Amino acid sequence: MNIWELIVALILGVVEGLTEFAPVSSTGHMIIVDDMLLQSKELLGSQDVANTFKVVIQLGSILAVVIVFWSRFMDLLGIKKQDQSGSSRLTLSTVLVGLLPAIVLGFAFEDFIDTYLFSVETVIVGLVAGAVLMIAADWKVKRDEKAGIGTKIDGLDAISYKNAFLIGLFQCIALWPGFSRSGSTISGGVLLGLPYRAAADFTFIMAVPIMAGASGLSVLKNLEYFTADMIPFFAVGFVSAFIFAFISIRFFLALISKIRLLPFAIYRIVLAFVILGVYLNMN
């Protein structure tokens, strides 16, 4: 394992950490940074090893969410109850209801998605369509504010089973690569009447079990690639993804209520054109 290979692992970990939970599509960024520029598949000598690495760095990002929301997860698991002050709390069953649509559709269409939807063209479509959804969410909030209409759902702990299920349906849109899980679910939550911060919190909390489950299974299926030569590469990517995901999540949560979704939507559209330009130049 040479220095350049470790630098590639570091760069990809940083890209994963910064984009996995921001509503900008980590898939789109990986296409332009890895598939078009760094080409870890060629570096590692195998697409399977490259895919395993991407799963490993995704686990680093997931760990960052767990740390940021540690008290909330302990509360959900009944390990450490937060001060309820006589009010209702978000429950584990509510989170599971939100996960149900994506789990069912993900299993049902896994082969179709892997075969037909992972391409540069489909990611570009997802980036632009996801941006339109985010702009629509912002537009609705501005319209309601002008009409003197407040949020319909007070906050994270006021999410009902119905709300969770509907937000889960929005999460299903992210099965199309490029849409972004956080972009779809935050937009869905806002459209349903959640404050931006509560929609973001619920999005991140829902992401952990579904992503950890899928990534964990993938790691178990590919343990053969965790050789002594590859461990340093995986470790650098994992640690860098964790650190930059932690920074990205804290920064995003502090800003989302102020800047809302429009800046991210504009960024996604610009990114789509950049990917299209690079793709056309390469072909």
UniProtKB/TrEMBL annotation:
Subcellular location field: Cell membrane
Regions crossing the membrane: 51-70, 90-109, 115-137, 158-179, 199-220, 232-253, 265-282
InterPro entries, sorted: UppP
EC number: 3.6.1.27
Enzyme class: hydrolase
Topology in membrane: Multi-pass membrane protein
GO cellular component, one term: plasma membrane
GO biological process: cell wall organization; peptidoglycan biosynthetic process; regulation of cell shape; response to antibiotic
Pfam families xref list: BacA
GO molecular function, one term: undecaprenyl-diphosphatase activity
UniProt entry keywords in alphabetical sequence: Antibiotic resistance, Cell membrane, Cell shape, Cell wall biogenesis/degradation, Hydrolase, Membrane, Peptidoglycan synthesis, Transmembrane, Transmembrane helix
Reaction catalysed by this enzyme: di-trans,octa-cis-undecaprenyl diphosphate + H2O = di-trans,octa-cis-undecaprenyl phosphate + phosphate + H(+)
Stated family: Belongs to the UppP family.
Function: Catalyzes the dephosphorylation of undecaprenyl diphosphate (UPP). Confers resistance to bacitracin.
NCBIfam families tied to this protein: PRK00281.1-4 (NF001390), undec_PP_bacA (TIGR00753)
Note: Bacitracin is thought to be involved in the inhibition of peptidoglycan synthesis by sequestering undecaprenyl diphosphate, thereby reducing the pool of lipid carrier available.
PANTHER family associated with the record: UNDECAPRENYL-DIPHOSPHATASE (PTHR30622)
Protein name in the entry: Undecaprenyl-diphosphatase
